[in-house]
Amino acid sequence: ELFDAIAARDLQLFAAAFDACDADALKNMVTDDLEFFHDKEGLSETSGAKFVEDIRQHCERIKTGVDFRARRELVEGTLAVYPLNNYGAVETGRHRFYAVVDGKPDQLTETAQFLHVWKNDHGEWKLARVVSYDHKLAEDAPH
User: Fold this and answer.
1) Which of 49, 51, 24 has its CA nearest to residue 37?
2) Nearest residue to 118 (alpha-carbon basis) of 24, 7, 6
3) What torsion do the CA atoms of 34, 40, 42, 48 make, to the nearest 10 degrees?
4) Beta bridge partners of 48
5) Would you give the DSSP letter of residue 17?
6) What are the angstrom distances between the C-alpha of 37 and each of 10, 96, 120?
7) Angle at CA 105, nearest 5°, toward 104 and 111?
8) Are 55 and 25 in contact, with CB atoms under 8 Å apart?
9) Helix (H, G, I), strand (E, B), or coil: what is residue 90?
10) Residue 19 contacts by C-beta under 8 Å, 6 or more apart in sequence?
11) Are 133 and 116 in contact (CB under 8 A)?
12) Per-position DSSP letters for 44-81, written without gaps between them
């Protein structure tokens, strides 16, 4: 049951951030004190509001062609979920990221591992901590 709840929330989160580019949908999916740690950038997000605004700006850059549209794919069989007593859950796994260009096949850009800490906020799962690491560019990525 816990695995299914977190797996579903993971799909919703990445669908909003990547597929729909819907920053407003992310507001209720993250905690106010969200922290995002990235192996290449260090501590890159320090609040839910900043994270949502950064996604909003990224989506605007996609519309103007400055940034490319991306797709996230969870690597099958890598998702694991563990309970955190009196708080929520830990989710780990590996994912791939693809550049999406109309009329062309999606192009693998990189792979990475992740650790997410989810807070159970009165029955609503919210992302509280992200550790995104082991990023490998496509030429080094396992296919």
Assistant:
1) 51
2) 6
3) -20
4) none
5) I
6) 17, 18, 21
7) 130
8) no
9) strand
10) 71
11) no
12) EE-SHHHHHHHHHHHHHHHHTTSS-EEEEEEPTT--EE
pTM of the model as a whole? 0.91
Task: Give the model confidence (pLDDT) of 75-119 as tens digits.
Answer: 999 999 999 999 999 999 999 999 998 899 999 999 999 999 999
Identity of the residue numbered 107: Q
User: Do residues 118 and 111 make contact, with C-beta atoms less than 8 angstroms apart?
Assistant: no
Q: For residue 94, list its beta bridge partners.
A: 113
> For residue 78, what are its two tokens?
């890598």
State residue 142's pLDDT score.
Answer: 52
Q: Which two tokens stand for residue 4?
A: 């299914």
Half-sphere exposure of 46 (CA within 13 A, CB side): 3
User: Can you name the residues that pair with 134 across neighbouring β-strands?
Assistant: none
